[in-house]
Amino acid sequence: MHCGWPAQRRWVLVPIVALLGSSMACSFALAAADNGQLAPQATAAPTAAAGQPQLPAQLPAPLGITPLPTLLPFLTAEAAPTAALPDIASLRPNAQTFLAAYAGTPPNIDGDISDWPELYGQIANVIYKPENWSGSADLSATFAAAWDSNNLYLALNVTDDAHVQTEQGRDLFKGDGVDLLLDANLVVDADFPYPNFDDYQIGLSPGALQANAPFAQAYRWYPLEQAASLPEVLVAARPTDGGYQLEAAIPWSALGVAIADNRIFGFVISVSDNDLPNTADQQTLLSSTPGRDLGNPTTWDLLQLTD
Predict the structure, then answer these.
(1) By mean pLDDT, which of 14-28, 83-97, 190-204, 242-256 is the weakest?
(2) Most buried in the list 15, 87, 159, 199, measured by CB within 10 Å?
(3) What is this structure's pTM?
(4) Residue 77 backbone class (left: φ over 0; alpha: ψ -120 to 50; beta: rest)
(5) What is the β-pairing status of strands 301-305 and 97-102?
(6) What is the DSSP pairing of strand 228-229 with strand 217-222?
């Protein structure tokens, strides 16, 4: 997961940007020096590593609105009162819009995505180190999103020919995992081309998928002043014949979101790959957004919450 901000960019509006000058890998995360099989593993609270931070990767261009899939078995009941939506086209005319259905009953976060319908979102755009990607069997993924008043829910089916995850905490991007970018206040700064306090980057790790190894977990890289492990985020994953499945329940509070006021967000979801056994390295990153630039939120796509 290519983690850094372009070195030549000057960050004048965000005081914390000075910390990013030396880190240009793959996430809003703090940059550090370098870069099995079992039942589903639920999230535990990892210890945040000390030292300098590090970041995750980049993307290509958006399209039209992705059709809403048939409702999940757990997507019933009524949503909370509808908030007024801004004009999507005026916010990001070139962005594709992913739809998150309302979950009347929360999905069971156990790493088994069979209770979700077809995963409609595609993650297939290589945005970091394309020379390390050999095709869809090497790395690709599909995803879906849902929501309720408490959480944003994600489900992913990841194709990966070699699962490697030796890291946790701020370094989890140096292994197989998921990267979420979310602009929590799109209506206010939809055309602002620099990340600020309402832009979030969260990593979701499936863990090593074997006993006595890193467990499934979440870490928030950005905003920098909020960088920390997120034990409140539920993450569970399980291996498949060709990769792994992952589910997550992310509290809106971990994303700085007030659902009563906002139903549309800047959004990118990506998957990171490492095929080197016993090694911490981000070899490549694939994204849902073809033109994604980690340091420019205006290149991100959209996520709309539907009732």
Answers:
(1) 14-28
(2) 199
(3) 0.73
(4) left
(5) parallel
(6) antiparallel
Q: What is the C-alpha to C-alpha distance for residues 178 and 173, in angstroms, rounded to an integer?
A: 8
Residues 6+ apart with CB under 8 A from 141: 122, 123, 124, 156, 157, 158, 159, 243, 271, 286
Reported confidence tier of residue 89, pLDDT bands at 50, 70, 90: low
CATH code (residue 180)? 2.60.40.1190
pLDDT of residue 261: 73
Calpha distance 268→1 (Å, rounded) = 13
Q: For residue 70, what pLDDT is reported?
A: 33
| Cα dist from 300 to 55, 91, 114, 142, 195, whole Å | 17, 11, 29, 18, 11
- CB burial of residue 100 (10 Å; 0-12, 13-18, 19+): buried
First to last CA, the chain: 33
Overall number of domains in the chain:
1
